[in-house]
Amino acid sequence: MILGVIPARYASSRFPGKPLIDIKGMSMIQRVYMQAKKSGMLAEVVVATDDERIKKHVEEFGGIAFMTQPEHPSGTDRCFEALQKSGVSYSHVINIQGDEPFIDPSQIDLLANVLQEEATELATLVTSVDSYDLLFSEGEVKVTLNSNMEALFFSRMVIPYIKGVDRKEWYEKFTYYRHVGLYGYRSDILEKITQLKPSSLEIAESLEQLRWLENGFKIKVAVTGHDSHCIDTPEDIDRVLGLMGL
Question: What is the pLDDT of residues 47-59, one digit of tens each?
Answer without folding.
Answer: 999 999 999 999 9
